[in-house]
Amino acid sequence: MTLNKRDVIYPRLALLCLVLVVVLTLFLFGVGLITLKEKQAEVMSLELSNVKLRTERVAAEVNRQTWQQAEATLADPGFQELLALASQKPSATQEQEARRIASEVVARHPVVKQAMAVADGRIVTTQQVGRGFRQALEKRLAAADVGQTGTDPIWLGARQYQVFFKVFDRPNRAAAFIVDEQWISDVLLHRIALSFGFDPVTVQHVRLKQGEMEPFNDGFALNTQLTGVLPFMHIEIAESPIQRQKTNAVRETVYLVVSCLMFLSILAAGLVLIIRLVRDLHVKQMRTDFMSAFSHELKTPLTLIRLYAETLQNDDELSPATRESYCQIISRESERLSRLLERLLTARKIEQGRNQYTLVAGDLAQTVSRTVESYSEHLRLRGFTVDLDLAQLLPLLRFDSEAISQAILNLMDNARKYSGDARYIAVRLFRERSECILEVEDHGVGIPPEEQPKIFEGFYRVSNSPSRQGFGLGLFLVQHVMKAHNGRVEVFSESAKGSRFRLVFPLSKPARLAGFARNFHPFARTMELARYVGGR
Q1: pLDDT tens per residue across span 463-494
Q2: What is the pTM of this model?
Q3: In CATH, which of 3.30.450.20, 3.40.50.2300, 2.40.110.10, 1.20.58.100 is domain 62-183?
């Protein structure tokens, strides 16, 4: 059934907008979750014990990399050139060349603050050094092993500097340089801290400091001693940026949580609107189908009743046999109308939970026989062969005779509609272990496997139906009747080979005495269509 264009164009646009909103919301929510995870990890990483552990690892890495760069620097060919100049007779030109070579060594190796070469008691360097520094350096060179890199702090003026040196041969022919502590603090230390997981804000407050450590004083969270290459220095991390960063991280985490909750609310609202929109479209289409089926089902019997009634009224020359035949047609179509209306009324009672069943012990075979015989004449007039097979000596069952008769009629009517050219219907009643089985079989078009779970929903009709007769309530009512009797409905069907429905009555389990009322959601969604008939 196709809806009017004006009925569906607005819902489709609204549905598209809602889908876009949902997709955008999911994207933003995913980004928020990722950022939230990062912020949580950041807050955890800012724990003092974590910071201290990583700072110790940073200190060890600074020592290692500084030593590596020192060895690479002392192997620079520029030091050999300086040693050659230091071995020559001093001159102004020689001094200028030595300063140039030393400056090039400093430029190539950022760890070097001042490069120097020592030969025959003479020091060639970029800047002059004091007598105390010369003596301290010569003393350390005298104690050093030839070919081995060494390091020691040496006072130069009012402060200590770390000096790396390497003796090439005796007497005291060596290369040395003063470490650039500022480069280690501003470049190497920060680079290593970032590689060990410190955030950029905290890294800006990590620095090297000379002198004795004073842990947890002057607003500093922790101090870590640098052993080895810089034994007189330590790493400091200020406490205030850590606390500030913690506060900011917690605040941002709260904002993200609130944003995620808002996104979830928008997503939930969008989903609710989409569900309502789809449901409204479904109800609108089912209302159209219902009205079409209702009109079709009423039109045929009403047309026949009116036609034959007018014929009986206006034609006085009809023979008694013809009049009897016309009266039977009017009676049969009237019964058909009654059954249609009865189905609708029963479905309405089921929806409201007011349908009651009176279960009385009786002979099920007798009820089946009476019901089949009452409908067989109608089927035979349409060219059907009805095969009835009832087992003998069945135990008494507690059942509602009228409800079971209606269920049998519904199954036989469905068999008639879906029989196609194979006009055969079989009804069997037999006992199988502790159950009593009532079967209705046809050799018609069958039911596709993917549609079999849906056929017991209210107003559902299979897609391969040769006609669009009925409201799709027959099997729904049959299932309701069987559940009221503590039984079940089974279906075995193959496309183009027919269907076999089994009503299974338990013999050992007592039947339910009270009315059966349960909320069947698929039917509850569609039964409101009946209210449209009343002019809703």
Answers
A1: 666 555 566 778 888 998 899 899 999 999 98
A2: 0.43
A3: 3.30.450.20
Residue 115's closest CA among 157, 80, 144?
A: 80
> What is the C-alpha to C-alpha distance for residues 267 and 302, in angstroms, rounded to an integer?
51
Of 5, 508, 26, nearest to 267 (Cα)?
Answer: 26
Q: Which residues contact 409 (CB under 8 A, 6 or more apart)?
A: 339, 371, 375
CB atoms within 10 A of CB 429: 22
Give the span between the Cα atoms of 334 and 50, in whole angstroms: 88
- What CA–CA distance (Å, rounded) separates 208 from 193? 12
Helix extents (H) in 319-382: 320-352, 364-381
Q: In terms of Cα–Cα distance, which of 226, 101, 116, 98 is closest to 165?
A: 116
Q: DSSP class of residue 312?
A: H
Q: How far is CA 371 from CA 305, 330, 356, 368, 407, in A?
A: 24, 20, 21, 5, 10
Q: How do residues 71-125 score in pLDDT, each as one tens digit?
A: 999 999 999 898 888 888 878 888 888 889 999 999 999 999 999 998 877 888 8
E strand map for 401-458: 424-432, 435-442
Instruction: Evaluate whether 523 touches 469 at the Cβ level (below 8 Å).
Output: no
Cα–Cα distance, 519 to 480 (Å, whole number): 11
Contact present, 192 and 62 (Cβ < 8 Å)? yes
| pLDDT on residue 44 | 54
Secondary structure of residue 234 in the 3-state scheme: strand
Report how far residue 90's alpha carbon sits from residue 86's, in angstroms, rounded to the nearest whole number: 8
User: What is the radius of gyration, based on Cα positions, of the chain?
Assistant: 49
For 13-55, give the DSSP string. Answer: HHHHHHHHHHHHHHHHHHHHHHHHHHHHHHHHHTSHHHHHHHH
Query: Tokens for 59?
Result: 């200190």
What would the pLDDT profile of 222-233 be if each residue is shown by its tens digit?
677 777 777 878
Work out the pLDDT band at 213, boundaries 50, 70, 90: low
CATH number of 342-533: 3.30.565.10
Is the C-alpha dihedral spanning 240, 246, 249, 254 positive or negative? Answer: negative
Residue 81's contacts (CB-CB under 8 Å, 6 or more residues apart) are 101
What would the two tokens of residue 27 be? 């994207």
pLDDT over 80 (residue 190): yes
Q: At what angle do helices 320-352 and 474-484 cross, to 10 degrees?
A: 60
Domains 62-183 and 342-533 share a fold: no
How many whole angstroms separate alpha carbon 321 and alpha carbon 327? 10
Q: Please give the average per-residue pLDDT across 368-382, as a whole number.
A: 88
Q: Where are the domains of the chain?
A: 62-183, 342-533
> Which pLDDT score is estimated for 218?
46
User: Judging by DSSP bridges, how do beta strands 385-390 and 424-432 pair with one another?
Assistant: parallel
| Residue of 497, 520, 367, 386 lying closest to 440 (CA atoms) | 386
Euclidean distance between CA atoms 202 and 206, whole angstroms: 7
